[in-house]
Amino acid sequence: MQTLTSTSVEVRDVRKTYHHHEVLKGVSLTVPAGTVTSILGPSGSGKSTLLRSINRLIPIDAGVIRVGNQIIGYEERGGVYHELSDKDLCRQRRRIGMVFQSFNLFPHKTVLANLVEGPQTVLRRPRRETEEEARELLALVGLAEKALQYPGQLSGGQQQRVAIARALAMKPELILFDEPTSALDPELVGEVLDVMRRLADTTDTTLIVVTHEIAFAREVSDQVVFMADGRVEAAGAPAEILDPDHSPRIGAFLARGRS
Fold first, then answer.
1. Full-prediction pTM beyond 0.85?
2. Cα distances (angstroms) measured from residue 112 to each of 149, 194, 241
3. Domain ABC transporter: where (predicted)?
């Protein structure tokens, strides 16, 4: 299995407005390198917007996001922030993997070809090396025997596991998961969560997970962040934040999750 490095994330007073509606209202958050952070909260609280801002799929209106020692989307020269070119932004994003709700696999390519596409075309790595690593990653997610099948031949849970392996193939320092089980049938959720647990246990890669899976967040996370109304309402250890008595808002959210 390849060795993956990790990086820290610093979000400072980030704001984002859509059509006169402020979705992120001065969000600040620290994610130490090599840790797992789960972001919970009701729908519309800004969780996915924050996640997509971290790799600048969504440009922010104000604030600063640092991944390691780099300001995402900008370069600081002489105390002034200069927006990066598309080429330089793509170079920054190579350090960040992302797993979406929908699997976003190439339907006309085999599972193996989906995994090697990025390392070969973006990183210019040798074919034999990338294929060997891709097969190791498929074994990690329990799909070694599916290498030559196509996405349409797989279940939704299997496709999402392929998407996780594809993110890992780029050797990211940070992986962002945007509600990776929300599009799955209930009986397929467990297999994806099991892969994510294994990933948290066997690599040092920094993971940030937007999820409604409270039991997963409690079990796997080093930190739980609760968002509501575009703000971080609470952040800390799972046992603290996921205590129903922590606050009325969190208690109500947890109660809905149990219903």
1. yes
2. 8, 21, 40
3. 9-254
DSSP labels, 60-125: -SEEEEEETTEETTEEEETTEEEEPPHHHHHHHHTTEEEE-SS----TTS-HHHHHHHHHHHTS--
Quick one: tokens of 94? 């190579």
Closest CA to 97 of 177, 203, 175: 175
The ranges assigned to domains in the chain are 9-104+173-258
Task: Give me the pLDDT at residue 203, please.
Answer: 82
Please name the amino acid found at residue 80.
V
Burial of 78 (0-12, 13-18, 19+ CB in 10 A): exposed
In this predicted structure, what is the pLDDT of residue 189?
Answer: 93
Tell me what pLDDT residue 79 has: 82
- For 146, residues 6+ apart whose C-beta sits below 8 A from its C-beta are 111, 138, 153, 154, 158, 162
Q: Starting from the edge strand earliest in sequence, which strands make up the sheet with 70-71, in order?
A: 21-31, 9-18, 62-67, 70-71
Handedness of CA 174, 178, 183, 187 (dihedral sign): positive
Q: Give me the residues of the chain with pLDDT under 70, please.
A: 1-5, 258-259
Contact 127, 162 (CB under 8 A): no
Residue among 24, 63, 68 nearest 46 (CA) = 24
